[in-house]
Amino acid sequence: MWSWEYTLEVLPKLLEVVHITLLATLTAFVVAMALGLVLALARMSHFKPLSYITYWFVEFVRTTPLLVQLFFIFYVLPTSFGITLSPFVAGVLGLGIHYSTYMSEVYRAGINSVDKGQWEAAIALNFSTRQKWQTVILPQAIRPVVPVMGNYLIVMFKETPVLSAITLVELLGRAQILGSQSFRYLEPFTLVGIFFLIISYSAALLVRKLELRLDLNQK
């Protein structure tokens, strides 16, 4: 049965690691955004070997489980290649690399949505490649896909419990520890679910507000 006394006992202990979950999510999201843009540009490159290699890398990462990738980074790299990473760094890299492949497709969709006339105008104005992308293409390509990127941020946040598999003590990891100590799992797991619900729903409202602010549905 539910115990409010035990709930009040474990609540502060769970709150202690909320920042780890949020920090891991935001850092991995930054990695995903940066690497996703690189992958998108490489995928669209006219240099065919680079485009093909990027395509197969994206497909491989997207079609293999995130957990396997995390295990490879955290357990295989130290034993086979001598590269040892902390649970936090390994988790951020694994989550960021995995979702960068999804971000790359979001970027590509945004870039392909830019009107052909904008490309021609940049060429007519004799812009350099950097100027063309920085001042004309990317600002128009990224703006429409901001809500999609926000949704991926929420998805990444909900994926952070898998990081407990590589010993990162985030919300779910702390709940498991508390449950194993007291043999009471109902309260800590329920609180974790409530935390995820509140934060995810709040983030979804912010994404919706941002979408309305950008006025993306107006023509």
Strands, count? 0
In the CATH classification, which architecture applies?
A: Orthogonal Bundle
The run of helices and strands is HHHHHHHHHH
CATH topology label: MetI-like fold
Q: In DSSP terms, counting alpha (H) and pi (I) runs of 4 or more, how many helices? A: 10
The CATH class assignment is Mainly Alpha
User: Which residues sit in consecutive blocks of at least 5 with pLDDT less than 50?
Assistant: none
Helix proportion range: over 70%
CATH homologous superfamily grouping: MetI-like
Spatial gap, N to C terminus: 55 Å
Biggest sheet: strands, sense, closure? Answer: none
Give the overall shape, derived from the CA principal axes. flat
How confident overall, as mean pLDDT? 91
- Count of the domains: 1
Structural class by secondary-structure content: mainly alpha
- Amount of beta strand: under 5%
- Report the C-alpha radius of gyration, rounded: 21 Å
Main location: membrane
Transmembrane segments: 20-41, 53-75, 81-99, 189-207
Keywords: Amino-acid transport, Cell membrane, Membrane, Transmembrane, Transmembrane helix, Transport
Domain ABC transmembrane type-1: 18-207
